[in-house]
Design brief:
The chain contains 5 helices and 2 strands. It has helices at residues 6-18, 24-35, 42-53, 80-97, 103-110; strands at residues 57-61, 74-78. A two-stranded antiparallel ribbon has the order 1-2. Helix 1 crosses helix 3 (42-53).
Length: 111
């Protein structure tokens, strides 16, 4: 299996969760919500570009989204290949975590 980086996995999940509202800022906000870590906007664009290049996501420029002369808004969605990859990643995660107890509880008990 060809593995993705952790940020690529998180981005695919964010795009999946956001459905038709997955564009740069909304994706970054979803990633921040899910990870609890503040991300710079630029940090998501290189991995998004790789996901697009590898056929896991599609990018569509929204018509009339430039507003006051800015850049057009680009919406992302999972391609069928991206959905298959996300399903495979989910199965790997389930398998590797199988048999591991809730570690947060174990850490809390040891304090």
């Amino acid at each position: 299996m060809n593995f993705l980086s952790r940020i690529e996995e998180i981005l695919l999940l964010s795009i999946y969760k956001l459905k038709d509202n997955a564009f740069g800022i909304s994706i970054r906000e979803q990633v921040e919500k899910d990870t609890g870590i503040e991300w710079l906007s630029g940090a998501i664009y290189a991995p998004l570009s790789r996901l697009k290049k590898n056929g896991y996501v599609n990018a569509v420029e929204a018509e009339g989204s430039t507003g006051q002369g800015g850049r057009p808004r680009i919406y992302y969605n999972l391609s069928p290949r991206g959905m298959e990859k996300l399903a495979a990643i989910q199965q790997v995660n389930i398998s590797v975590w199988d048999g591991v107890p809730n570690l947060k509880r174990a850490v809390t008990k040891s304090k």
